[in-house]
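--- STAGE predict ---
source: upstream dedup step, 1 unique chain passed
mode: sequence only
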Amino acid sequence: MSKAGSGDTETRTGLVVSGFGRHYIVESDAGERITCHPRGKKSLCVVGDRVRWQATGDEGVIEALEPRRNLLFRQDEWKTKAFAANLDQVLVMVASEPVFSESQLARALIAAESAGIEVSILLNKTDLPQIVAARARLQPYLDMGYRVLEVALKTQPEASRAVLGPLMDQRASLVLGPSGTGKSTLINLLAPDARAQVGEVSQALNSGRHTTTSTQWYWLDAERRTGLIDSPGFQEFGLKQIDAQNLPGLMPDLRDAATQCRFYNCTHRQEPNCGVREALARGEISESRYRIYGEIRQELEGTRW
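--- STAGE serialize ---
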């Protein structure tokens, strides 16, 4: 971890690679890392942000946030939680065991669609017998055009690396997923010096617990062109940032069907000549996807479905 000179007044650019509270690790364009704090009371930075910072003694002050290309976040009634910024893609990770929540998967996909970020589904533990059921549950997502990648990170590491390497090359990728899906295995497979990077951050923040609950950026190559961002697991994924009327447009299997509705403001509940419910009756939309749509719409509107 580099230390800035006490008399240095130059403003520099850098990349936020980790953060906890008002503590951020900023990496300079030369690859040096320094602990920085935002100027003022608000902490608006997230991992993946480009910032302008100025050295103050052995640390730094973040002076400005550069414009973002995108921002992936979740929002409920009480708070907004940002995952990361300036992403090239999101990998939503699930596994054959434990059984994944389709609602959480759908919400993560909707959030990525809303932010305009490319998204793929990563299915781990294909070596287990439960893979047959997992594939069946993901079939509707394949049918609606999502890319589904299959890996067995622990038992087939080299084959998994061959699947993931080309997809992630020279891109900034965020991995989302609940605990138990194999995110740590993924990090350790693709970023051999991951522990060293975490240790460096822990030393800078003077506490190992910071990095276990915060988002972390890892470089997968010495040239620092391929970035992998790990985020803490989540139990809830609110989508309060989305307008209820726009929700079908963010769900590929509902998007086209919704254009066939008789009423422009159709809620797809009980209106006559509803394109979504007609597609549901034909089997073009699965019962589980329609149920998830109803749950999210109810949350966004604060009404009963």
